[in-house]
Amino acid sequence: MFLSGKSTSSAAAEKSFSMDPVPYKTSRISSTGFGYKFEVNPGQKFIRLHFYPASYRGFENSVDFFTVKAGPFTLLGNFSASLTAETLGVKYHVKEFCLNVNEREH
Hints:
By secondary structure, this protein is mainly beta. It has one domain. The protein is built from one helix and six strands. A two-stranded antiparallel sheet has the order 1-2. Strands 3-6 form a two-stranded antiparallel ribbon. A hairpin with a 2-residue loop joins β4 and β5. The two termini are 15 Å apart.
């Protein structure tokens, strides 16, 4: 795992859900880029990203755009979890991806 720039973790507010609860109750927020690195074996990988937009002091929802990359693939580009939730009329949402990791990308 690698991180660059200043970032912080913060507990998400407790909310009641009509469906499964959000699986993680912390989030990473940052005004600069950061990343995580996971070593995985070659083969098919299923990636599920859970988004529960929340307000944080000093971070505007109107500028919460980010990009998610997995190896050579851009899974989400210039994405806003809060604008997506607002547009869909939901409190949280999930994005799922399936990709193949080749030996040379490993």
